[in-house]
């Protein structure tokens, strides 16, 4: 049993394998030729590896950014990092986490099959992290680590990962210009909020992608060039503030600190280029392959994919969102220092990926103003809500890291508060959440029939 569980976790937490298997299933259901099945499966697998590799390059190039930032400001505190806090938690909650994840995937597929929310969540590491958060909170709420926790946790996770892509889909249609792919990330609540803020307060006519650039600077329209130049300025400024001694002894291994900063900026831009190539490969293969599943197993279903999938649609918004979100996080940190609360140090990776996506969502409905306001609101959420989730994480509240994205923070805080009220409250809350989604689906379907 344990070997089977370990194999399931190994497959499900490797999105490249998981999505390749789903692509293969879709192609087989369409009765494609063996050569087409092999070609589509391998290209999907390779495309996801390219995407993951690009994301890794981006994350690795941001690590020295974070180190120089903390050294320059001499601050200590809690750094939101999903990977770090999950690594700590899995030591104690690993088996329960894996079982919750298995039940959660089943619930997600069942809800996609029998409700109007046709989104199959395919970001494996995100599913694992949500499972881990759920296990930690439920066990800390004295539910134990038996079958009750697994079933309840799976219902909670599967429902959450079905409904959050649905919140984002109206904006995804605007961003991608179609309705074939959904957002499968754990920042979806923040992205939908950013899109709504952009819609209410923005100006759709002035997109981030239509910035007027003088002819003499037309080379800046190339995203690789503009990203390298902008990040180069930022990295060099940070390296100067942190000081050559710190950079050369702690980070660069003796390489001149200015040269090191330039290389990191170029590496960041290279990671972005790799991500864009991976996105192109995935969309070319997974969407057609998914039609087989949509027709046979889960009619009209859509794959919910990881956040970089939208970066090619608004590269200017990506940079705007990152810087706005990070500045908001930094200002929030100074306010926390003044208030003498626990200090949440802005996580560079979280502010990059979530801030970028929030700006893209804000831009889709509110242009440049929407992008800035959307990234600002999302930045405030991921800066301040970690203070509220720490008390409900049991022994993990003593760790030097915590969860970073809105879909951990908002549901996690609500679930934790219910847990504080007792076992019956948390059980009732999870079942009610599941039933609300079912009833909402029925009501919306009836509304659509009436309007027809």
Automatic annotation (TrEMBL):
It comes from the Bacteria. The keyword Membrane applies. Its main location: membrane. The keyword Membrane applies. Keywords: Cell membrane, Membrane, Phosphotransferase system, Sugar transport, Transmembrane, Transmembrane helix, Transport. It is a multi-pass membrane protein. The chain crosses the membrane at residues 6-29, 41-65, 85-112, 119-141, 147-168, 225-245, 257-276, 317-337, 343-361, 373-393, 421-444. GO terms for biological process: phosphoenolpyruvate-dependent sugar phosphotransferase system. One of its GO terms (cellular component) is plasma membrane. Pfam families: EIIC-GAT. It is found in: Cell membrane. Belongs to the UlaA family. Homodimer. The phosphoenolpyruvate-dependent sugar phosphotransferase system (sugar PTS), a major carbohydrate active transport system, catalyzes the phosphorylation of incoming sugar substrates concomitantly with their translocation across the cell membrane. The enzyme II UlaABC PTS system is involved in ascorbate transport. This is Ascorbate-specific PTS system EIIC component. It comes from Pediococcus acidilactici DSM 20284. The gene is ulaA.
